[in-house]
């Protein structure tokens, strides 16, 4: 697993989700509740316990071995009830996409607004 | 400019074939990411925060129009229509897809470009003064020596796995526009007391978490001894540089720990018993390479051009652009045009494919087919007839490339920061945009005068904040970005490391702090002092008092 995954071995202090980059285009994705990897984190599968973490870890490892994704790792999020907000600044940026060059870099996924609020806040 | 010989062309083509195979094996799963990572990095391909990033070398910052057209083509066909020029005179594409990268490298090879050694613990792209070969007061064009070092260092078996990355910069002028004091090795061509031209050699400069100004290890070295002497420096580093701690692995740490005197002694001792032939490069080889850098076919022109003079009188905006962005040329009747990639509120160093094409066309028509990339993330048309300056300016204006802010407050260096970079701890581009918008009024900028603001989004200092008159370092604490300010840094021939003025500022207040510093300077300056001159006279105290009293 990639840097940032040290939390996987620790007791869970908050909910986690699994993220990675796609092998082909390198874009940021999150593991969804339906088992697919999608750019938005709004439907990301949450881990609340060590068992959940182990399951996500297994899914990530399998997807990496299948050469679908690169460097899967878990990130901590805040579940507000209506949205998921990554705790770390770096992860908020990954979820959101660049805050500059918007004319070139606009992303079509629906999570951008939520993450925008997180960055702005 | 340098043209690939048969060896260069074969080497680059073979590398593309090799990498295509490696990419195919990675996509098929025959290579794991752990196996593939070092292979892609050897070809300049990083996996960054949001996507892959390809870093393309622009050797010693020199391009022709064909190459710039190709960079624009790649931006459109394989990326998102723009590229980012960096502080190492490279260009970075932020969104290439892995399966497309071999095709990108094929396209680069067609115009004698590549991405080799833009990553890894090897000798990186050798950088040079962007005015090389055209500066009015230059001793000698340093680019043939930069090319010589490129050839010497490419895949050099002894220097492909150094303790850390290694950066060399070279200038042929007393005025340092290549930041040689902040490089692992900095070279300056100069005359000795007998009038012979040789190299003054500096070793152990660097930015990062431990900024250091390079120590002079040789006051003057005959040109014919360059490679032998560099070999000795590299061997001392390779043997004694630390490999146990990446934060202490750069040559600057070795020079610092040994002391400059002892380090120099070891280099001289190594050089004395070197087992490579003396006289490297040979006169013949130097002449062969120098021939590629022979001056273009300049016309025999008068010093002044009547039409140009009239335009200066008639058009104030043009005259102000000439004053800031145009520099004297060594050939009578010509000028050096500096193109700002720092529009007010823009992203420093970015150029759209359309802008790249416009610059390529201008270079072909009016700059004897040459373009330069600067470490300050701007571009240069180095060979423009004074007569053509007005037409060049009009064309640049049409493409939003005529900002008359070279060396002014909005000519900000900024690394990509947390908007793109996987190592960054905070965003740097939005801060540069905010400062640029705040100080952007051109009258105000001209009143402030020469001012270098440089912003890095992490301690690695790719935005050269240590060398900024005002330096800004973005950090993160408990999920929130904050920014340290340093004052008094400089990357020129009087290089200095900026000093932290105190506690950091939030992203909302750092621009206010910068503005307060600038206003304090305007209030206390004497007799036309620049910001740096005023800082060196009064020290940090008045600025600290002003900033921390109001923030």
Describe the 3D structure:
The complex is a heterodimer of chains A (121) and B (551). Chain A has one domain (6-120). With 121 residues, chain A is of the alpha+beta class. Chain A starts with 15 loop residues before the first strand and ends with a helix. Chain A has a 5-stranded antiparallel beta sheet. In chain A, 31% of the residues lie in helices and 22% in strands. The mean pLDDT of chain B is 96. Chain B has 4 domains: 6-110, Sulfite Reductase Hemoprotein, domain 2, CATH 3.90.480.20; 134-292, Sulfite Reductase Hemoprotein, domain 1; 306-398, Sulfite Reductase Hemoprotein, domain 2, CATH 3.90.480; 413-550, Sulfite Reductase Hemoprotein, domain 1 (2-Layer Sandwich), CATH 3.30.413.10. Chain B starts with 5 loop residues before the first helix and ends with a helix. Chain B is globular and about 60 Å long. Chain B contains 18 helices and 21 strands. With 551 residues, chain B is an alpha+beta fold. In chain B, 38% of the residues lie in helices and 17% in strands. At the A-B interface, helix 2 of A face helix 1 and helix 14 of B.
Can you describe this structure in just a few lines?
Chain A is of the alpha+beta class and 121 residues long. Chain A is 31% helix and 22% strand.
Descriptors for this entry?
heterodimer; A: alpha+beta; 5-stranded antiparallel β-sheet; 31% helix; disordered C terminus; B: 551 residues; alpha+beta; Sulfite Reductase Hemoprotein, domain 2; 4 domains; 21 strands; 38% helix; globular
Which structural class best describes the helix and strand composition of chain B?
A: alpha+beta
Mean pLDDT of chain B: 96
Provide the CATH topology of the largest domain in chain B: Sulfite Reductase Hemoprotein, domain 1
Radius of gyration of chain B: 23 Å
Show unreliable segments of chain A. 1-10, 107-121
Largest interface: A-B, 27 and 34 residues
Extended strand count of chain B: 21
Question: Which stretches of chain B of 5+ consecutive residues score pLDDT under 50?
Answer: none
Q: Helical content of chain A, roughly? A: 25-40%
Question: Number of helical runs of chain A?
Answer: 4
CATH superfamily of the largest domain in chain B: Sulfite Reductase Hemoprotein, domain 1
**Count of DSSP H/I helices of chain B:** 18
Q: What do the pLDDT scores of chain A average to?
A: 82
Question: What number of domains of chain B?
Answer: 4
Return the structural class of chain A.
alpha+beta
């Amino acid at each position: 697993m990639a840097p940032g995954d040290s939390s996987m071995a620790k007791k869970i202090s908050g909910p986690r989700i699994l993220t990675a980059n796609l092998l082909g285009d390198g874009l940021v994705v999150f593991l969804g509740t339906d088992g697919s990897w999608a750019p938005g984190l709004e439907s990301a599968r949450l881990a609340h316990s060590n068992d959940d973490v182990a399951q996500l870890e297994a899914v990530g490892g399998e997807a990496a071995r299948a050469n679908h994704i690169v460097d899967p790792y878990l990130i901590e999020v805040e579940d507000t009830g209506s949205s998921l907000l990554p705790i770390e600044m770096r992860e908020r940026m990954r979820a959101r996409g660049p805050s500059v060059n918007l004319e070139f870099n606009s992303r079509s996924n629906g999570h951008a607004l939520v993450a925008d609020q997180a960055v702005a806040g | 400019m340098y043209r690939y010989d048969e060896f260069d062309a074969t080497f680059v083509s073979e590398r593309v074939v090799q990498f295509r195979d490696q990419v195919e094996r990675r996509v098929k799963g025959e290579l794991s990411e752990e196996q593939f990572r070092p292979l892609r990095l050897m070809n300049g391909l990083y996996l960054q925060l949001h996507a892959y990033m390809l870093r393309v070398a622009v050797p010693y910052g020199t391009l022709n129009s064909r190459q710039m057209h190709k960079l624009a083509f790649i931006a459109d066909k394989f990326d998102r229509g723009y590229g980012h020029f960096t502080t190492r005179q490279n260009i970075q594409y932020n969104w290439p897809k892995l399966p497309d990268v071999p095709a990108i490298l094929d396209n680069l090879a067609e115009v004698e470009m590549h991405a080799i050694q833009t990553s890894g613990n090897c000798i990186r792209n050798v950088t040079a003064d962007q005015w090389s070969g055209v500066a009015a007061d230059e001793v000698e064009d340093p680019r043939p020596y930069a090319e010589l070092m490129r050839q010497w260092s490419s895949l050099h078996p002894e220097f492909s796995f150094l303790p850390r990355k290694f950066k060399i910069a070279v200038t042929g002028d007393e005025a340092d526009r290549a930041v040689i004091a902040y490089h692992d090795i900095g070279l300056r061509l100069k005359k000795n007391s007998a009038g012979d031209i040789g190299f003054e050699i500096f070793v152990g400069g660097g930015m990062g978490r431990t900024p250091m100004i390079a120590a002079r290890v040789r006051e003057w070295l005959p040109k014919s001894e360059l490679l032998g002497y560099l070999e000795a420096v590299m061997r001392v580093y390779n043997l004694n540089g630390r490999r146990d701690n990446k934060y202490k692995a750069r040559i600057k740490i070795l020079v610092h720990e040994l002391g400059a005197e002892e380090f120099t002694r070891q280099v001289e001792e190594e050089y004395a018993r070197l087992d490579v032939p003396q006289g490297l490069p040979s006169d013949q080889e130097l002449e062969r390479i120098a021939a590629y850098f022979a001056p273009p076919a300049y016309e025999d022109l008068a010093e002044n051009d009547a039409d140009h003079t009239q335009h200066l009188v008639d058009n104030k905006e043009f005259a102000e652009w000439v004053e800031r962005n145009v520099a004297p040329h060594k050939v009578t009747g010509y000028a050096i045009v500096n193109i700002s990639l720092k529009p007010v509120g823009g992203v420093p160093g970015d150029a759209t494919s359309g802008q790249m094409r416009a610059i390529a066309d201008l270079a072909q028509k009016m700059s004897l087919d040459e373009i330069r990339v600067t470490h300050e993330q701007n571009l240069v048309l180095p060979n423009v007839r004074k007569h053509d300056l007005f037409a060049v300016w009009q064309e640049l204006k049409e493409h939003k490339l005529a900002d008359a802010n070279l060396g002014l407050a909005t000519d900000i260096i900024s690394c990509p920061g947390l908007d793109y970079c996987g190592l960054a701890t905070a965003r740097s581009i939005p801060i540069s945009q905010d400062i640029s918008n705040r100080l952007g009024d051109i009258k105000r900028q001209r009143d402030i005068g020469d001012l270098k603001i440089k912003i890095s989004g992490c301690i690695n200092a790719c935005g050269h904040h240590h060398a900024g008159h005002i330096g800004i370092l973005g950090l993160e604490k408990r999920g929130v970005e904050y920014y340290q300010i340093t004052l008094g840094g400089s990357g020129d021939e009087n290089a200095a490391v900026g000093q932290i003025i105190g506690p950091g500022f939030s992203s909302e207040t750092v621009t206010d702090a910068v503005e307060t510093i600038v206003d304090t300077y305007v209030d206390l300056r004497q007799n036309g002092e620049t910001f740096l001159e005023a800082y060196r006279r009064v020290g940090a105290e008045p600025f600290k008092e002003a900033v921390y009293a109001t923030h």
